[in-house]
Design goal:
two-stranded antiparallel sheet; 16% strand; 193 residues; five-stranded parallel beta sheet; Rossmann fold
């Protein structure tokens, strides 16, 4: 009886430990192959400008474009609380200033979650006949983002930011805890984010 109770208590801890390992292990993967587009998952905009976290995502996507690894950039994200500019539009302006031609930038301006980002991007992929994509986000977000995209039928591959703002353990832990929560929820099939 005691063994059964101990096992029941340890099962959730073991499951969370395994999921944490999966998130960290996948965060190190980056697909080097060419793709039709890079989908940049939205993040905060501060006073009309991308936040530092979002800036790193945009810079990475612009680099992918400039190196010829992708042909299009798809920026996602709607207007956040107290913002005037959508995340996607702020990213577009940043990419234009970095020299990416406007006709190579597509935007989805309504989403507020990872799933919505990807559903909006999927409509653009279909409209422009684009197939293979690289997903751009923070490393700890990659596993859930790629699994969500693939679950929607998108031919998605990881391309995490090499210069994440979440470098120290102190900054990584809250992001990891949030990601672990949403990853566990998605594994349970609830589909919140």
């Amino acid at each position: 009886m005691k063994t059964r109770i101990i096992l029941l208590l340890l099962a959730p801890v073991m499951a969370l430990t395994i999921m944490t390992y999966q998130i960290y292990a996948y965060a190190q993967q980056s697909d080097p192959d060419p793709a039709d587009a890079a989908i940049v998952l939205g993040a905060a905009v501060w006073n009309g400008r991308p936040s530092p976290v979002f800036t790193e995502r945009i810079k990475h996507a612009v680099d992918l474009y400039q190196r010829g690894q992708v042909q299009y950039l798809i920026f996602t994200g709607g207007v956040g609380y107290n913002d005037q500019l959508s995340e996607a539009q702020a990213a577009r302006e940043y990419a234009l200033a970095a020299g990416v031609p406007g006709e190579r930038i597509l935007t989805e301006n309504n989403s507020t979650t990872t799933r919505e980002n990807l559903q909006g991007a999927q409509r653009l992929l279909e409209a422009y006949g684009l197939q293979r994509v690289l997903l751009v986000s923070d490393p700890l977000h990659m596993l859930r983002a790629v699994e969500t995209a693939q679950g929607l039928g998108i031919d998605a591959h990881p391309s995490p930011t090499p210069t994440s703002r979440y470098r120290s353990l102190r900054s990584q832990l809250p992001f990891l805890a949030r990601e672990l929560y949403y990853f566990a929820v998605s594994r349970l099939g609830v589909g919140l984010a």
